[in-house]
Design a protein that fits this description.
The chain has 22 helices and 2 strands. It is mainly alpha-helical. Helix 3 packs antiparallel against helix 4, helix 5 runs antiparallel to helix 16 and helix 13 packs antiparallel against helix 14.
């Protein structure tokens, strides 16, 4: 319930800038016929609408925007996702919270450095950095919810030794809500499955592969066709193909990516134990490789691929860091082997320090919200972002972001999706 309020859904607490898009998408689905077309007689809009369909359908039946519906829908999503983390982390809510904040350590250190010396590097028009799932929940709760679910399920599967083929369907179903998290998590699961097939005799079965891998992957096909049906593709390329100073980019990469990689590796070496209950090393090493490589390629004007694509990977890292410590008497093991205790405590403190950003966000939500805005209007100015300020997602992106970002979601008139999956009928004219 707390994170549902803090994330800004229904305008109860401070809302980030992205709620101009979230609220407009909800309004579009409530007001217009499905699928959404921009303009009304144009092609299908290739955008992320999946999360809003159920509350929008209820709103259509109710005859008005239902903030209660989208609040409850979001609450149930967070409840499911956090429950998986709660189970993996031995039912310790503190460690669930710390897992959500994994990835924000560089942000904490940069903030301290800035207060004393100023900026470490020159900021470009896109970032090479990671945001924790907690931070992302304030911007894209629609993508964080499926990420929590599939990452928690994957963590549970790794912990309990469940066949990873069973993860393919959940990952495939999340593709409509969260493209980049589904892609990165799917890539991880796919490599682990292939590794098992090649290294374990008798682990490959045709019938199982068809039922649990190939058929679920087909769920992605219509959505993939939709997302490829853009009139203009999103900006993309290796980071050195863009005009910013590579010296500044190298510093940015070293700080935002390098620090996390070092701390995550040390956390696995010193905090995860050595007994039979330790999670397998291959998934974590693959994740560290992905975290090192993915920042080198940009997709989207602000680098959405990196900000969102790392979300499931950071959650899995968090489960690795805290699965051992959250066990009964787990924190006492920090005191064993006195020669390693200083390093263990140092790594544990650095990991926990990631939560400072989240704590500050919680404080902001507690101070800037609907209740304080009404009770203390002279001290707090809070006006929830409206749902109907713009007619459609194209208009809000053009007005609040840029023409480039508005154009990249316009559908293509003669796309495969337009011709064969969602063709216009005579009554749509």
């Amino acid at each position: 319930m707390a994170i549902t309020c803090i994330c800004g859904i229904s305008g109860l607490c401070y809302q980030t800038f992205d709620y101009w898009c979230h609220n407009t998408k909800f309004y579009e689905l409530y007001r217009y016929d499905w699928p959404i077309r921009i303009p009304g007689d144009g092609p299908v809009t290739a955008y992320y609408y999946g999360f809003y369909l159920v509350p929008a359908l209820y709103s259509k039946m109710a005859g008005k925007i239902s903030e209660l519906a989208i609040f409850l829908w979001t609450f149930v999503g967070f409840l499911l996702g956090l429950s998986w983390l709660y189970i993996v982390l031995h039912k310790k809510m503190l460690f669930v919270f710390l897992t959500l904040t994994i990835g924000d350590l560089p942000h904490v250190l940069k903030s301290i450095f800035y207060k004393i010396w100023g900026h470490l590097y020159k900021f470009g028009d896109f970032g090479v950095e990671s945001w924790s799932n907690f931070e992302n929940s304030l911007w894209v709760p629609n993508q964080v919810i499926p990420t929590l679910i599939i990452s928690g399920m994957l963590g549970y599967a790794l912990k309990e030794g469940i066949r990873l083929e069973r993860m393919v369907l959940p990952v495939a179903l999340s593709f409509w809500w969260a493209v980049f998290p589904a892609f990165t998590c799917g890539l991880l699961v796919g490599i682990l499955i292939l590794h098992k097939w090649f290294t374990r005799k008798g682990s490959f079965h045709i019938a199982t592969t068809v039922n649990e891998v190939l058929l679920p992957c087909l769920c992605c096909a219509p959505v993939l066709v939709l997302y490829l049906s853009h009139e203009k593709p999103p900006i993309s390329g290796f980071i050195w193909q863009f005009s910013e100073s590579m010296n500044s980019r190298a510093i940015e990469y070293s700080v935002n990516i390098g620090i996390n990689l070092i701390v995550f590796y040390l956390g696995y070496r010193f905090l995860t134990g050595t007994d039979s209950k330790r999670l397998p090393g291959l998934p974590l090493y693959l994740i560290l490789f992905f975290i090192a490589v993915f920042p080198l390629y940009r997709i989207g004007k602000v680098n959405d691929f990196l900000f969102r694509g790392l979300m499931p990977l950071l959650l899995i890292v968090g489960l690795y860091m805290y699965q051992h410590l959250s066990a009964p008497n787990g924190t006492l093991r920090l005191l064993t082997q006195p020669s390693k205790a200083p390093v263990r405590w140092a790594v544990a403190v650095l990991l926990a320090a990631s939560s400072i950003i989240a704590v500050s966000r919680i404080g902001r939500a507690a101070y800037i919200n609907k209740a304080t805005g009404e009770l203390l209007p002279e001290h707090v100015s809070f006006v929830p972002i409206p749902y109907d300020a713009y007619a459609n997602i194209y208009e809000v992106l053009k007005a609040r972001w840029s023409q480039m970002e508005a154009d990249q979601y316009v559908g293509k008139q003669d796309s495969i999706y337009e011709r064969f999956i969602a063709p216009r009928h005579s009554y749509d004219q």
